[in-house]
Amino acid sequence: xxxxxxxxxxxxxxxxxxxxxxxxxxxxxxxxxxxxxxxxxxxxxxxxxxxxxxxxxxxxxxxxxxxxxxxxxxxxxxxxxxxxxxxxxxxxxxxxxxxxxxxxxxxxxxxxxxxxxxxxxxxxxxxxxxxxxxxxxxxxxxxxxxxxxxxxxxxxxxxxxxxxxxxxxxxxxxxxxxxxxxxxxxxxxxxxxxxxxxxxxxxxxxxxxxxxxxxxxxxxxxxxxxxxxxxxxxxxxxxxxxxxxxxxxxxxxxxxxxxxxxxxxxxxxxxxxxxxxxxxxxxxxxxxxxxxxxxxxxxxxxxx
Length: 304
Ligand SMILES: Nc1ncnc2c1ncn2[C@@H]1O[C@H](COP(=O)(O)OP(=O)(O)OP(=O)(O)O)[C@@H](O)[C@H]1O
Prior knowledge:
Blueprint: E1 4-13, E2 16-26, E3 31-35, H1 42-49, E4 57-62, E5 77-80, H2 92-102, H3 108-116, H4 132-144, E6 150-154, H5 162-177, E7 181-186, H6 189-193, E8 198-203, E9 206-212, H7 213-219, E10 224-228, H8 232-241, E11 245-248, E12 253-257, H9 261-270, E13 277-280, H10 285-293
Bound molecules: adenosine-5'-triphosphate.
């Protein structure tokens, strides 16, 4: 079992601190979503974990070893950092084969990863003619070649069609089910909702949240109740008087927070208010994420 440990990680480029005293762990057997707005420092952190950039301070280790100290890194950690990195003139099979040979891995692994990523039928084709989705699969096949216990994906679904997105999501989940530690970055909360078990959220290089997905859902955006009533105006006043916060929902409804649906129902019965609907709302993940990261977005567009 291999865990990624990031401890007090800091990276400066000239005067800019792009990763700032960041600490978190990525546990085996689950998908950890690494979230943050554009420019938050996700790619930099992943590049440091993969030994592609040196930290200014702190460390990022794989099972307590630096990437540079791993004897055959491909057998310990695989990464998809940039799908465009594959040599376009090479055939998929040849690309994987060259990678296997240079890492001392058996040829059968090439067949195995081609099968696992559904690329068998295009193994003899040049990667240059591949769609983005197929290039992503080839990048993932490369990452899996050494059967590593840790996998790192940087924005893997960027630019993919819905089918490609679904495939990657399912694939990441299956890797976690096999007991691997999977770290996947995104700047979109909604993407993580269906994939991640755990969330690490950063903004301006700093840790904002490190939490289980279900805890995150409970803590953010939960507790709003939609109330539909023909007497919306009058009931809003009753609710506010009882201590709730009330916003206008889609007409003629109210969005109430600070009271449970049971309490709202009792208040309505007491004042003989007719209710057409009383439903606890699913938290909007995107809203929760925006709220969490709003102070750490570097360039905010002017709001209309
Ligand atoms: N080699 C470098 N030299 C100077 N600045 C850099 C370098 N690499 C990254 N940066 C800066 O570090 C900051 C963080 O970038 P990074 O790519 O890690 O963020 P990110 O969270 O992955 O964002 P995105 O989702 O846009 O890729 C950015 O402001 C970027 O311009």
